[in-house]
Structure of Alpha/beta hydrolase:
Amino acid sequence: MTAPRPVLLLLPGLLCDHAAWSGPAALLAAQAECRIPSWGKLDSIEAMAAHVLATVPEPRFALAGHSMGGRIALEIMRQAPQRVERLALLDTGYQPLAAGDAGERERAGRYALLAQAREQGMRAMGAAWAVGMVLPAQVGTPLFEAILDMIERSRPEQFDAQIHALLGRPDATALLAGIRCPTLLLCGREDRWSPLERHADMHEQIPGAVLEIIERSGHMTTMEAPHDVVRALLRWLDRKDSRAEGKETP
Protein backbone atom coordinates (compact mmCIF):
# COMPACT_ATOMS: atom_id res chain seq x y z
CA MET A 1 0.00 0.00 0.00
CA THR A 2 1.25 3.48 -0.88
CA ALA A 3 2.06 5.61 2.16
CA PRO A 4 -0.11 8.74 2.48
CA ARG A 5 1.48 11.99 1.45
CA PRO A 6 2.55 14.16 4.38
CA VAL A 7 0.59 17.34 5.00
CA LEU A 8 2.77 20.35 4.17
CA LEU A 9 1.57 23.78 5.25
CA LEU A 10 2.99 26.63 3.16
CA LEU A 11 2.62 29.92 5.02
CA PRO A 12 2.67 33.12 2.93
CA GLY A 13 4.10 36.46 4.00
CA LEU A 14 3.05 40.09 4.09
CA LEU A 15 0.46 40.87 1.37
CA CYS A 16 1.10 37.45 -0.14
CA ASP A 17 -1.48 34.80 -0.95
CA HIS A 18 -1.60 31.41 -2.69
CA ALA A 19 0.38 32.82 -5.64
CA ALA A 20 3.51 33.17 -3.53
CA TRP A 21 3.60 29.39 -3.05
CA SER A 22 1.75 28.16 -6.16
CA GLY A 23 4.91 27.19 -8.06
CA PRO A 24 6.45 25.07 -5.29
CA ALA A 25 3.05 23.62 -4.36
CA ALA A 26 2.49 22.38 -7.90
CA LEU A 27 5.97 20.89 -8.10
CA LEU A 28 5.55 19.15 -4.74
CA ALA A 29 2.06 17.78 -5.39
CA ALA A 30 3.26 14.19 -5.80
CA GLN A 31 5.29 14.26 -2.60
CA ALA A 32 3.07 16.20 -0.20
CA GLU A 33 -0.47 17.45 0.35
CA CYS A 34 0.23 21.17 0.18
CA ARG A 35 -2.09 23.66 1.86
CA ILE A 36 -1.73 27.44 1.79
CA PRO A 37 -3.62 29.34 4.52
CA SER A 38 -4.76 32.95 4.30
CA TRP A 39 -4.68 35.57 7.02
CA GLY A 40 -7.75 37.69 6.37
CA LYS A 41 -7.77 40.58 8.82
CA LEU A 42 -5.91 38.81 11.62
CA ASP A 43 -3.66 41.39 13.23
CA SER A 44 -1.11 39.48 15.30
CA ILE A 45 1.44 36.75 14.66
CA GLU A 46 0.01 34.87 17.63
CA ALA A 47 -3.53 34.94 16.19
CA MET A 48 -2.28 33.80 12.77
CA ALA A 49 -0.50 30.83 14.36
CA ALA A 50 -3.57 29.94 16.42
CA HIS A 51 -5.68 30.13 13.24
CA VAL A 52 -3.45 27.57 11.52
CA LEU A 53 -3.54 25.22 14.50
CA ALA A 54 -7.33 25.50 14.80
CA THR A 55 -8.02 24.84 11.12
CA VAL A 56 -5.67 21.94 10.42
CA PRO A 57 -7.31 18.71 11.62
CA GLU A 58 -4.25 16.47 11.31
CA PRO A 59 -2.34 16.02 14.57
CA ARG A 60 1.04 16.54 12.87
CA PHE A 61 2.27 18.28 9.74
CA ALA A 62 5.33 19.69 8.01
CA LEU A 63 5.56 23.47 8.13
CA ALA A 64 7.24 25.95 5.77
CA GLY A 65 6.92 29.72 6.13
CA HIS A 66 8.14 32.47 3.84
CA SER A 67 8.90 35.98 5.15
CA MET A 68 6.15 36.89 7.67
CA GLY A 69 5.03 33.27 7.25
CA GLY A 70 8.33 32.18 8.78
CA ARG A 71 7.60 34.24 11.88
CA ILE A 72 4.16 32.61 12.06
CA ALA A 73 5.83 29.19 11.73
CA LEU A 74 8.07 30.00 14.68
CA GLU A 75 5.04 31.05 16.71
CA ILE A 76 3.37 27.73 15.85
CA MET A 77 6.50 26.07 17.21
CA ARG A 78 6.00 28.04 20.41
CA GLN A 79 2.29 27.23 20.73
CA ALA A 80 2.28 23.57 19.65
CA PRO A 81 5.76 22.16 18.93
CA GLN A 82 4.47 18.59 19.23
CA ARG A 83 2.42 19.05 16.05
CA VAL A 84 5.32 20.10 13.81
CA GLU A 85 7.13 17.19 12.16
CA ARG A 86 9.65 19.41 10.37
CA LEU A 87 10.21 23.14 9.94
CA ALA A 88 11.40 25.28 7.02
CA LEU A 89 12.03 29.01 7.41
CA LEU A 90 12.47 30.95 4.16
CA ASP A 91 13.65 34.57 3.81
CA THR A 92 12.48 35.48 7.28
CA GLY A 93 13.55 36.65 10.73
CA TYR A 94 13.13 35.92 14.41
CA GLN A 95 13.77 39.14 16.31
CA PRO A 96 11.17 41.66 17.55
CA LEU A 97 10.83 45.28 16.50
CA ALA A 98 14.09 47.03 17.31
CA ALA A 99 14.16 49.46 20.20
CA GLY A 100 14.73 53.18 19.82
CA ASP A 101 15.23 55.02 16.55
CA ALA A 102 15.56 51.89 14.40
CA GLY A 103 12.17 50.63 15.50
CA GLU A 104 10.56 54.02 15.00
CA ARG A 105 12.00 54.21 11.49
CA GLU A 106 10.48 50.83 10.66
CA ARG A 107 7.14 51.86 12.12
CA ALA A 108 7.12 55.14 10.19
CA GLY A 109 8.14 53.44 6.95
CA ARG A 110 5.42 50.82 7.18
CA TYR A 111 2.70 53.36 7.93
CA ALA A 112 3.89 55.59 5.10
CA LEU A 113 3.31 52.66 2.73
CA LEU A 114 -0.15 52.14 4.21
CA ALA A 115 -0.97 55.82 3.64
CA GLN A 116 0.19 55.50 0.03
CA ALA A 117 -1.95 52.39 -0.44
CA ARG A 118 -5.01 54.22 0.86
CA GLU A 119 -4.39 57.30 -1.25
CA GLN A 120 -3.16 55.76 -4.51
CA GLY A 121 -4.28 52.14 -4.36
CA MET A 122 -2.56 48.89 -3.49
CA ARG A 123 -0.99 48.35 -6.91
CA ALA A 124 0.57 51.81 -7.04
CA MET A 125 2.03 51.30 -3.57
CA GLY A 126 3.27 47.85 -4.56
CA ALA A 127 4.93 49.14 -7.73
CA ALA A 128 7.33 51.16 -5.58
CA TRP A 129 7.57 48.84 -2.58
CA ALA A 130 8.07 45.55 -4.45
CA VAL A 131 11.19 46.78 -6.25
CA GLY A 132 13.15 45.68 -3.19
CA MET A 133 11.59 42.20 -3.20
CA VAL A 134 13.30 40.82 -6.28
CA LEU A 135 16.49 40.98 -8.28
CA PRO A 136 16.73 44.27 -10.21
CA ALA A 137 16.51 42.38 -13.50
CA GLN A 138 13.05 41.09 -12.52
CA VAL A 139 11.48 44.54 -12.20
CA GLY A 140 8.96 45.05 -15.01
CA THR A 141 8.88 41.36 -15.98
CA PRO A 142 5.80 39.08 -15.87
CA LEU A 143 7.06 37.82 -12.49
CA PHE A 144 7.03 41.37 -11.13
CA GLU A 145 3.53 41.92 -12.53
CA ALA A 146 2.39 38.71 -10.81
CA ILE A 147 3.67 40.11 -7.52
CA LEU A 148 1.76 43.34 -8.14
CA ASP A 149 -1.37 41.32 -8.98
CA MET A 150 -1.00 39.53 -5.65
CA ILE A 151 -0.57 42.78 -3.72
CA GLU A 152 -3.58 44.27 -5.48
CA ARG A 153 -5.76 41.37 -4.32
CA SER A 154 -5.30 42.60 -0.73
CA ARG A 155 -7.15 45.60 0.68
CA PRO A 156 -5.67 48.44 2.76
CA GLU A 157 -7.45 47.14 5.87
CA GLN A 158 -5.65 43.81 5.48
CA PHE A 159 -2.37 45.66 5.01
CA ASP A 160 -3.09 47.61 8.20
CA ALA A 161 -3.77 44.40 10.14
CA GLN A 162 -0.58 42.75 8.90
CA ILE A 163 1.51 45.83 9.65
CA HIS A 164 0.12 45.72 13.19
CA ALA A 165 1.11 42.05 13.39
CA LEU A 166 4.66 42.69 12.22
CA LEU A 167 5.24 45.69 14.46
CA GLY A 168 4.09 43.59 17.41
CA ARG A 169 5.97 40.47 16.33
CA PRO A 170 7.16 38.27 19.19
CA ASP A 171 10.81 37.67 19.94
CA ALA A 172 11.60 34.06 18.97
CA THR A 173 15.27 34.16 20.02
CA ALA A 174 14.81 31.95 23.08
CA LEU A 175 12.81 29.43 21.04
CA LEU A 176 15.55 28.59 18.53
CA ALA A 177 17.82 26.48 20.72
CA GLY A 178 14.93 24.21 21.66
CA ILE A 179 13.90 23.29 18.11
CA ARG A 180 14.61 19.60 17.56
CA CYS A 181 12.72 18.67 14.39
CA PRO A 182 14.48 18.61 10.98
CA THR A 183 14.87 22.30 10.15
CA LEU A 184 15.70 24.02 6.88
CA LEU A 185 16.80 27.65 6.65
CA LEU A 186 16.63 29.04 3.12
CA CYS A 187 17.51 32.48 1.79
CA GLY A 188 17.97 34.19 -1.55
CA ARG A 189 21.57 35.28 -2.00
CA GLU A 190 20.40 38.81 -2.88
CA ASP A 191 17.61 39.10 -0.30
CA ARG A 192 17.72 42.73 0.87
CA TRP A 193 14.80 42.40 3.30
CA SER A 194 15.77 39.28 5.24
CA PRO A 195 19.49 39.01 4.55
CA LEU A 196 21.62 35.91 4.56
CA GLU A 197 23.42 37.00 7.73
CA ARG A 198 20.18 36.68 9.70
CA HIS A 199 19.71 33.11 8.46
CA ALA A 200 23.31 32.31 9.34
CA ASP A 201 22.54 33.50 12.89
CA MET A 202 19.53 31.18 13.07
CA HIS A 203 21.64 28.36 11.65
CA GLU A 204 24.05 28.72 14.55
CA GLN A 205 21.24 28.68 17.11
CA ILE A 206 18.99 25.83 15.87
CA PRO A 207 20.54 22.41 16.55
CA GLY A 208 21.08 20.39 13.39
CA ALA A 209 19.56 23.00 11.07
CA VAL A 210 20.56 23.05 7.39
CA LEU A 211 21.18 26.37 5.62
CA GLU A 212 20.55 26.54 1.86
CA ILE A 213 21.26 29.60 -0.29
CA ILE A 214 19.32 30.25 -3.47
CA GLU A 215 21.56 31.92 -6.01
CA ARG A 216 20.22 34.59 -8.38
CA SER A 217 17.23 35.36 -6.17
CA GLY A 218 16.06 38.17 -3.95
CA HIS A 219 13.46 37.98 -1.18
CA MET A 220 10.75 36.27 -3.23
CA THR A 221 12.54 32.94 -3.63
CA THR A 222 9.32 30.94 -3.91
CA MET A 223 8.38 32.92 -7.04
CA GLU A 224 11.83 33.86 -8.38
CA ALA A 225 13.36 30.39 -8.15
CA PRO A 226 10.61 27.82 -7.45
CA HIS A 227 12.57 24.86 -8.85
CA ASP A 228 15.58 25.61 -6.65
CA VAL A 229 13.32 26.07 -3.63
CA VAL A 230 11.60 22.75 -4.32
CA ARG A 231 14.91 20.91 -4.61
CA ALA A 232 15.84 22.22 -1.15
CA LEU A 233 12.41 21.33 0.24
CA LEU A 234 12.62 17.79 -1.15
CA ARG A 235 15.96 17.28 0.59
CA TRP A 236 14.36 18.60 3.78
CA LEU A 237 11.33 16.33 3.44
CA ASP A 238 13.64 13.34 2.97
CA ARG A 239 15.67 14.05 6.12
CA LYS A 240 15.09 11.56 8.91
CA ASP A 241 13.67 12.82 12.18
CA SER A 242 16.06 11.58 14.85
CA ARG A 243 13.30 11.84 17.45
CA ALA A 244 11.43 9.06 15.65
CA GLU A 245 14.47 6.86 16.23
CA GLY A 246 14.70 7.81 19.91
CA LYS A 247 17.80 9.97 19.45
CA GLU A 248 18.42 13.63 20.04
CA THR A 249 19.63 15.78 17.17
CA PRO A 250 23.28 16.63 17.89
Notes: Confidence is low (pLDDT under 50) at residues 244-250. DSSP finds eleven helices and six strands in the chain.
